[in-house]
Write a structure and sequence with these properties.
The chain is α/β, with parallel strands linked by helices. The protein has one domain: Rossmann fold (3-Layer(aba) Sandwich). It is 35% helix and 27% strand. The protein contains nine helices and ten strands. The strands form two sheets. Strands 6-7-8-3-9-10 form a six-stranded mixed β-sheet, with helices on both faces. A four-stranded antiparallel β-sheet has the order 2-1-4-5, covered by helices on one side. α3 packs parallel to α5 and α4 packs across α5. The longest helix is centred in the C-terminal third of the chain and has 18 residues. The two termini are 35 Å apart.
Length: 251
Amino acid sequence: MLTVRELTKIYKKFSSLFQKEEEFKALNNVSFELEENKVLSIIGESGSGKTTLAKIICALLPYENGVVEINKKNILNYTRQELSNTVQMIFQNPYSSFNPKLTIGHSLFEAVDKNINDKKEFINEKLALVDMKEDAVFDKYPHQFSGGQKQRLAIARALLKNPKILIADEPFASLDVINQSLIMDIFRKIKKEQKTNIIFITHDISSAFKISDKILILQNGNMVKYGDIEDIKKDNNEYIRELINATYLME
C-alpha cells in the first residue's frame, strides 16, 4: 500500500546573520511499509520527525532523498487532487480544523466530491462512523462543539474523500481520557468497516500497542525500530525501554 525507502529530509537554517548556513536532518534514511488494511503507529518524542514524515507522505513537504510510493506509484507522480483522494491527514489541533465563520454542514458539503450523487446521505454515513448525527451538526458552528466533538467531525470530513490512507497526527493531544477512548474506538471501527489504512502518530506508546499492527519508532530523525508489537515489547534498546517505562509511570 505505502512504501517508504531511505527517506531523508534536511532543513537548512542560519543561526544568525553572520554565521554560515547549517543543515539539520529531520529524517535520516527512514524505511518502512504500511500494508493493506493495517494500522502503523509512528512513535517518538517531540522533534523525532513524526509530523515531518506525515507531511511528506501528504506531499505537504519536499524531501531530499528516498522514495515514497503509494500502490507502487511515486507520490511525485500524483496530481494534487489524486493525492488528496488517496491520503487524508487529521491534525492534532481540532480547534483549527474548521473555518469558524462557516457552519459544520457547509464545511462538510465542501469536502464531498462533486461526483457523489446524494451528498447528504453520503455525509450522514460518515457522521455515523464517528457517532454523530446530522440534526446535531449541520446548522451549528465550530465554537459550539467540544474539542472531542470537533476531532470526531474532523475525522468524518477526512473520510468524505474515501482515502486509502488516513493519517492521524497526535489525535489525543488535547483530549481527556474519555474522549481518547472514544476516538480510539472510532479508529478501530474505521479500519474494520471502511478498510482504511491508518497511520497513527503519537508519543504515547501504550496507545499504539492498543491499535497497531506495526510500529515505527523514531529518535532525532533516525529509525530506532520497525516491527510488530511483540518485537517492540521484547527489544532492550534503551530508548524503547524509556518510552515504555514513561508511559507506565504516567498511568
